[in-house]
Amino acid sequence: KLKAFIFDLDGVITDTAEYHFLAWKALAEDLNISFTRELNEELKGISRMDSLEKILQFGGKEQEFSEQEKLELATKKNEHYVELINKITPSDILPGIEKLLRDIKQANLEIALASASKNANMVLEALKLKDQFDYIVDVTKIKKGKPDPEIFLKAAELLKVDPSSCVGVEDAIAGVEAIKSAGMYAVAVGPKSSFQKADLVYETTEALSFKEIKERFEE
Ligand code: B16
Ligand code: MG
How does 170-209 read in b/e, with b if 16+ C-beta sit within 10 Å? Predict the structure, then answer.
């Protein structure tokens, strides 16, 4: 039986992916690494330090920095990112999300957030959505990033529901993998061709339908 929804943040609830992109791009340019939107796709759902590693690899510079220097680079990117997301308001909630959250609550189901972002609390507050969530997983306590299922399993544990009673909603390939490995029902947002492993795919957040997800889950 369907009992809970567990949401990703970036790319599902709001489009912070664009701000992550701009902040990484500025850092990459400083390092003389060319960074495109296409490469940015590979960073979705990936932690800050792992994202930095990937960018350094794209530029063939992964050997050039000490651990300390890498931390400084990641901090610099984050400061820029935080500056960019300061402008976020409830008008940045992606279409269809407020209705979906309302429909879930109306059906008396639980809602949790499973975001890899250390800025998730700040973003939810800026969107004025924090009250809609029963639990927000503290990512600093999570050892393994997506595609590992840990963050989704933690959310189910906090909600005290069995993973098999949960729907996970994601926009990243690593995220969908994490949901499936957690033994949950995976709803993906994005192009159908990217998400063979998902149980249900919606091209946009606007198309998300509580009724349809519930019916398909119960089939
Ligand atoms: P931060 P999600 C993820 O959030 C983003 O998709 C990913 O691009 C980002 O690097 C990661 O959070 C860490 O974010 O630097 O703010 O801690 O999609 O899991 O909500
Ligand atoms: Mg995401």
Answer: bbbbbbbbbbbbbebbbbbbbeeeebeebbbbbeebeebb
